[in-house]
Write a structure and sequence with these properties.
54% of the residues lie in helices and 2% in strands. It is mainly α. Strands 1-2 form a two-stranded antiparallel ribbon. Strands 3-4 form a two-stranded antiparallel sheet. The protein is globular and about 65 Å long.
Length: 333
Amino acid sequence: MPFIPEEWNLRVTTYALVIIVGIFAAVVIAHRRLTRRGGEPWIIVDVGIWAVVLGIVGARLYHVLTHLGDYFGPANDNPWNPFQPGSVWAIWEGGGAIFGALIGGAIGVAIGCRITGLRFWSVADAIAPGLLLAQAFGRLGNWFNQELFGLPTDLPWGLEIDRPNPAIPVGIPDDVLFHPTFLYEILWNLAGFALIIVATERIAFIAGKLIPTFTRKHFWQWGKVLGLYLIWYGAGRVWFESIRLDPSETFLGIRSNVWTALAAIVIGIVIIVVQTRRHPGAEPDVYQVGRGPEATSGVDSEDTYSDSDEDEPGDGAAELTEAAATSGSTRAS
């Protein structure tokens, strides 16, 4: 659905607009969460640029791999030609996958963290809740495009889709309604956003000692917010995919996105369990060792980054010992 009149020779779709709004909202939320823990104001933008660009690449690549028949079928004689309709490069024609965006975005975050000196897990935890909000905006764009709807339904909230629509199989009557799967996902993502914010920022005040493990001050660090996000979003996608109408590659009779959603749940659980065991304490800083804004110019360029709960004792410990000895000798004299 075009947002600007075609006679202006500038075509901006409503879908693109809501995607941009979603990205902006996610960046603002991540900025707030990261700066509250000591990050420099808007340093998240330096990471976000990498995440967005590689997220777009990953989204397109994943979509093509899970819809090979659309691009390498007999009707498309040269899918590699960027100037031909239906090309694998023609992202402006539509076709992207959230799971691919997450994979590409994670690579972008890793690159951005290496450049800025931020810890990967700190940034991932800051970004996670905003991802759900951004994805909710993205699904709103699917409504404007009237795409990615579900199976026929006679429920009161069934969705009426304008005809003709290439996504509707031949033979389905014009008066049939469909599951608004994108609406279900919008509500699921908003609920997950609220859950993560409450669980990571408010649950200690609300629940108190009722859930002592999850209400420890520093529990939701070291990537465990990301783990919670993966579990929540993956669980929702397993259901949404089961009632979607659009075609997709399958494995053992199950849609590829269902397998990916199940993998996301498993990865989320593993992150929470492993990181809880490895890092029972708080993250020392959102920056890698020697990479924070307060780091002096005398930091050795060969210093290495450590993900341990506490920095290794070094010259600082020796200096404290020497100072204590000097103080003791002064009192003795």
